[in-house]
Amino acid sequence: MREEIKSVFAGLLDQMQDKELSEKVVDVWVDCAKEGGWKSFEELCEIPFTLLTDTEGVNLLEHTVAVTKGALGIANAIISTYKHNPFDIHLDWVIAGGILHDVGKLMEIEKTDGSYRKSYAGKCARHPISGAIAAAKHGLPPEIQNIIICHAKEGDGRPQKIEGVFIHQADFATFNPAVMKKQGLLF
Ligand SMILES: [Fe+2]
Asked: How many Å lie between the centroid of ligand 1 and the Cα of residue 36?
């Protein structure tokens, strides 16, 4: 399953300078897939990216790539546009954090009797927490742990890395329209 997961993220991983870090990112995904009890890559490809609204077939892997590309787009827009960029932006952390922001959902979501629901592990620790724990287990730096924890409401009002702010915005730019569509607020 490792090679298949790696191939999904290849276009992003290839942009990382730190190859050791990019391998660890894949390790975390493989480990969390195992921890979550997912048996095959095909199973991974069917996991919806959220249980909170109808995803209309958009899966967790696609969502993860789209969010990472979006966060990277914001980061690159700032870097390439501002004459005096006041922010210290670490592109490797945008990519690593983007790919890992929802990795905890592999443990938070379970498939029972053909439908997806929150797992017992997910009740104990939401995906930003379980994802950060998994990243720490594989030796990813505290900055990336912070990005994973703070990409969701756990980060509200907390000190955080700018890479996590980009990921948070890209995440909600992809999540909110799904909710709005369901509510009839998108036309
Ligand atoms: Fe997400």
From this structure: 17
Domain that holds residue 27: 2-179
Q: Please indicate, yes or no, if residue 185 is contained in any of the structural domains.
A: no
Distance 69 CA to ligand 1 centre (A): 12
184 domain residue, yes or no: no
The tokens for 106 are 């592999």
Would 187 be classed as within a structural domain?
no
Q: What is the pLDDT of residue 28?
A: 98
CA distance 102 to 122: 12
CATH at 141: 1.10.3210
**Ligand 1 centre from 5 Cα, in Å?**
17
Exposure pattern of 2-22 as b/e (b: 16+ CB <10 Å)? eeebbebbeebbeebeeeebb
Question: pLDDT by residue (tens digit) across 31-42?
Answer: 999 999 999 999
pTM of structure: 0.96
